Amino acid sequence: MKSDKSIRESISVNQLMALVQMFRAQDQGPVDENIGVFIMNRAYLVKYKKGDIIHKAGNVCRVMNFLTTGLVRGFIVDSNKELTTWIVVEHELAAPIISYVNQIATIENVQALEDCEMISMDYDDIQELYATFPEFNHITRRLFEIYYSKAELRALIARFSTAEKKYQFFLENFHELSNRVSQIYIASFLGIDQATLSRIRRQKKKLV
Fold first, then answer.
1. Is residue 15 a contact partner of residue 45, using CB atoms and an 8 Å limit?
2. Which among 72, 105, 129, 169 could bridge 94 via Cys, Cβ 3.0 to 4.6 Å?
3. 90 by DSSP, 3-state: which?
4. Is the CB of residue 37 less than 8 Å from the CB of residue 87?
5. Cα–Cα distance between 75 and 110 in angstroms, integer?
6. Tens digit of pLDDT for each residue in 17-56?
7. What letter would DSSP give residue 54?
8. What is the phi/psi pair of residue 126, to 5°?
9. Which CATH class is domain 7-156?
């Protein structure tokens, strides 16, 4: 695993507008201009290279990341084996949420699977944003609702009895990942071995 070699920059007006559009899409309404000014002053753009570790297990997550470009996964290490716990794409939160919300150390690592850009804000700044602009609580509530809806889908995968059923559920609910994520990470995400996933994919191709 490569360590964090992130590059931090100030966010541009265009990047701020992209983030505001992301909020607006979730909230279905206008975003207070003063919220944008606050974010512009406190948020920053972070760039990671493919393979970089964004957050390391054992640490407390003090930053919320809004992924603007790229692909990110969470994973734990058990018996020297990496187990992928989640994968997110653009316009999603890319952080170990339990650690962030509760401000406790996490067992999860977070890694860039592609070159990534994300707009990040420190925990204390976001708490101030909540207190200063109560309407921002509603916007982020929708983001967390979407996050936890996907978390439930991830939990359901583990309950299926066969690898074939797991992969079919994955295709139905995470189709945007099927041709973008390396097979090794999809297999890890589904809790099956890579050889089994390769066999299932070959069988599906024959049926097309």
1. yes
2. 72
3. coil
4. no
5. 6
6. 777 666 655 555 567 788 888 988 899 999 999 999 999 9
7. E
8. -70, -35
9. mainly beta
Q: For 127-153, b where at least 16 C-beta lie within 10 A, e where not — what string?
A: eebeeeeeebeebbeebeeeeeebeee
User: Which residue has tokens 């979407």?
Assistant: 146
* Rounded CA separation 45/67 (Å): 10
Query: How confident is the model over 56-104, as pLDDT tens digits?
Result: 999 999 999 999 999 999 999 999 999 999 999 998 889 999 999 999 9
pLDDT digits (tens, 9 = 90+) for 123-143: 999 999 999 998 888 778 877
* Cα–Cα distance for residue pair 147/66, rounded to 1 Å: 12
Residue 152 and residue 162: Cα distance in Å, rounded? 19
- Type of residue numbered 7: I
- Antiparallel, parallel or unpaired: β 44-48 and 7-10: antiparallel
Q: Which residues pair with 82 in a beta bridge?
A: 77
pLDDT of residue 35: 86
Asked if residues 147 and 104 have their Cβ atoms less than 8 Å apart, the reply is no
Q: Structure pTM?
A: 0.85
Residue 150, beta-bridge partner list: none
Q: Would you kindly state where each structural domain of the chain is located, as residue ranges? A: 7-156, 158-208
- Residues constituting the chain: 208
* DSSP class per residue in 20-82: HHHHHHHHTS---HHHHHHHHHH-EEEEE-TTBEEE-TTSB--EEEEEEES-EEEEEEETTEE
